[in-house]
Amino acid sequence: MKITQLSVYQKNLSLKDPYWLSGGRLKFEVLDATFVKVETDSGLVGWGEGTPWGHTYVPAHGPGIRAGIETMAPAILGQDPRKVELVERAMDTCLPGHLYAKQPIDLACWDIMGKAFGLPIADLLGGKRDTGTPVASSVSSGEPDYMMDIIKQYRDKGYIAHSAKVGGSDTKKDIERIRHIEANRLDNEIILYDVNRAWTRREASIVMNAVSDLGVTFEQPGETLDDIAQIRSVTTSPISVDETLVTLQDAARIARDGLADVFGIKLNRVGGLTKARRMRDIAIEHGIQMFIMATGGSVMADTESAHLAQSIPDAFIRACWSCQDMLIEDIAPGSGPRCVDGFITIDDTPGLGVTPDESLLGEPVAVYR
């Protein structure tokens, strides 16, 4: 089986409401999504999606995905998509780095492999749990009551996991946010306080020590792994790493040096499922729990995350993120797993299990043969 054609689509995905993170430092309203259709000489077709969370959040850029695919296309065409590590090696050789540009191609190859073998991707990743995975909401930063109202809205949809955005120079306000949400937390809820690198070392130590009695988990309380190491040395709260978990070398250092208790694996950031499954295995071997997430995107991106999440044993998975409920557009109506009563569950459909409606994507912006 050989890859014979790559078709690239671009679509803007509008958020239902403006979204703030890092203590209101960053605002997002529209996501620049890239969809890739990979065709083969066997007739099997795979789909992938890459949707960075804007271009001010981390070094990832919607147009950069499409430029990266243009550069890599000659190396991808002719590859057997079922041999995902050979495709990975071809992309890494042709274009070192730029992991976020490789993820949609990687996903499309896994989609084809699943269809070829008649198995869902989660089974190809080692075997899926029978139970689904809790879906985490994403709670925009704001006043404590505003954030609590968002959590209550998601509760009404059955969500039990929430990622509440904190971070900023007003440490008193962050302490107020955290204590207010914890005072209203339900017994079965999983709440992660996501700083998105916004704190300095001083601000992180002030807030985390001020609420250390609550036992809450903080995600990415500093900019770099060196910052995380210093913060770790002066605080006792559990830490999750997200933005600084990019490569396998990062995962190995975090596990070896005991820098964090949780991996937040974002598939677009780390380059796709082929690379992410290695991080999963490092985490399990070191007793580190995981949140699995897309950086943003449609039901396709959510489903990719759900496949990896459902391949992780119950003891090590905290939740996965679902962005689809935050979007106005649905590019795959009636297709793919959706959040039901706060959980997303992968069934036995071969491959990814989501096929977009091509009429909703418009004409390809590029085709490579």
Strand fraction: 15-25%
**What is the CATH first-level class name of the largest domain?**
Alpha Beta
The helix content, as a percent range, equals: 25-40%
Shape: globular
Summed up, the helix count is: 13
Strand order of the largest sheet: 4-5-6-7-8-9-10-11
Radius of gyration: 20 Å
- Class derived from helix and strand content: alpha/beta
CATH superfamily placement of the largest domain:
Enolase-like C-terminal domain
CATH architecture annotation name of the largest domain? Alpha-Beta Barrel
Largest sheet descriptor: 8 strands, parallel, barrel
CATH topology of the largest domain: TIM Barrel
> H/E element string?
EEEHHHHEHEHEHEHEHEHHEHEEHE
Secondary structure tally: strands: 13
Please tell me the overall pLDDT. 94
Please give the alpha-carbon distance between the first and last residues: 15 Å
Structural domain count: 2
